[in-house]
């Protein structure tokens, strides 16, 4: 078995297939966990906002996988208490968020982290005196998860190695075919029983360049983040004051992580947080936490390119689901999200038989 792509989905596929007794080689064009998978919001979550677009199956699957990550790797993944501050001028009302959390709780089934509760405004401002009190009605507290994405991914890589998978870095793949052949630059074709293309944002390009027909395509959406050089006293899920998109304020390594944006871009454009995106996130933060932050407080910027299943609408409403397409001995994996990588991987053994 050949796996193309050393992000979290590729690594989980390598681990699962090796565990099932397959002879697995993984090819990564750069370093393992060095692209999209390490540029996430550092969240392991069901995706509360995906309920607005009725992605119920995805949310149920992600909530189950979130809890599995907590159990498998507690050194890199942990529950995180998050508050949703609700303001009188917000787009989403208390009852809308309450309904969403009720459904979130139902989809979490028997999870020990499924409960939520309401906190009045005065209690919220006592917890975090920096929370903007103007128009604040109160808020909901619920639990999702936080991870060190790069370290957790490298932990998965080590599990895959221990299961027998061979992981190759600095090993770009030029093309594959439906006969199970794989070509690297300047080398003869190598023959495999199955080649799995899990190259994330580059998966569609690899398939098209290889002459493989795809039913689905990808929309490439840049998600940018900034880290402020100031402590975060409470994690928040909140609305942006301009477009009412959901964004996060999160504790991260003695600082405050803000994310994320959603900007469509081409594969050949630089994957970097723009000044406009940084200001967008600063504006969002200043609407929730006082005093507002300035660009001089930004200690880090990073961005990742998300491979979303193609849609005609707003990127904010695009599906975070994944699809697996087979053409002969080639399997192409398109889409997917960090939290559900193990669930995706568990589907492969039945497909490759």
UniProtKB/TrEMBL annotation:
Family according to the record: Belongs to the FAD-dependent glycerol-3-phosphate dehydrogenase family.
Biological processes annotated in GO: glycerol-3-phosphate catabolic process
Keywords, sorted A to Z: FAD, Flavoprotein, Oxidoreductase
SUPFAM superfamilies: FAD/NAD(P)-binding domain
Name of the protein this chain belongs to: FAD-dependent oxidoreductase
Cofactor: FAD
Database matches in InterPro entries: FAD-dep_OxRdtase (IPR006076), FAD/NAD-bd_sf (IPR036188), G3P_DH_FAD-dep (IPR000447)
FAD dependent oxidoreductase domain residues: 2-346
Molecular function terms from GO: glycerol-3-phosphate dehydrogenase (quinone) activity
């Amino acid at each position: 078995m050949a796996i193309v792509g050393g992000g979290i989905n590729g690594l989980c596929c390598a681990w699962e297939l090796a565990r099932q007794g397959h002879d697995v080689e993984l090819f990564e064009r750069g370093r393992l966990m060095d692209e999209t998978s390490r540029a996430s919001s550092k969240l392991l979550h069901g995706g509360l906002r995906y309920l607005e677009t009725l992605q119920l199956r995805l949310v149920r699957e992600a909530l189950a996988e979130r809890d599995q990550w907590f159990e498998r790797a507690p050194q890199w993944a942990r529950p995180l208490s998050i508050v949703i501050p609700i303001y009188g001028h917000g787009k989403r009302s208390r009852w809308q968020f309450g309904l969403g959390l009720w459904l979130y709780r139902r989809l979490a089934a028997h999870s020990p982290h499924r409960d939520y509760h309401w906190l009045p405004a005065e209690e919220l401002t006592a917890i975090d005196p920096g929370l903007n009190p103007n128009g604040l009605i109160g808020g909901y507290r619920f639990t999702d998860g936080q991870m060190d994405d790069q370290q957790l991914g490298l932990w998965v890589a080590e599990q895959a190695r221990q299961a027998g998978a061979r992981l190759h870095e600095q090993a770009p793949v030029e093309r594959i075919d439906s006969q199970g052949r794989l070509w690297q630059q300047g080398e003869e074709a190598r023959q495999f029983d199955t080649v799995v293309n899990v190259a994330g944002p580059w998966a569609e390009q690899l398939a098209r360049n290889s002459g493989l027909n795809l039913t689905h395509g990808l929309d490439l959406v840049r998600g940018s983040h900034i880290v402020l050089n100031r402590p975060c006293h409470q994690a928040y899920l909140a609305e942006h004051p301009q477009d009412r998109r959901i964004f996060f304020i999160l504790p991260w390594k003695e600082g405050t992580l803000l994310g994320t944006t959603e900007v469509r871009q081409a594969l050949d454009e630089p994957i970097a947080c723009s000044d406009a995106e940084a200001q967008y996130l600063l504006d969002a933060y200043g609407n929730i936490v006082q005093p507002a932050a300035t660009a001089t407080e930004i200690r880090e910027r990073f961005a990742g390119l998300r491979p979303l299943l193609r849609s005609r609408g707003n990127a904010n409403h695009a599906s975070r689901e994944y699809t697996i397409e087979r053409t002969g001995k080639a399997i192409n994996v398109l889409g997917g999200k960090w939290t559900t990588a193990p669930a995706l991987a568990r589907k492969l053994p039945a497909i490759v038989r």
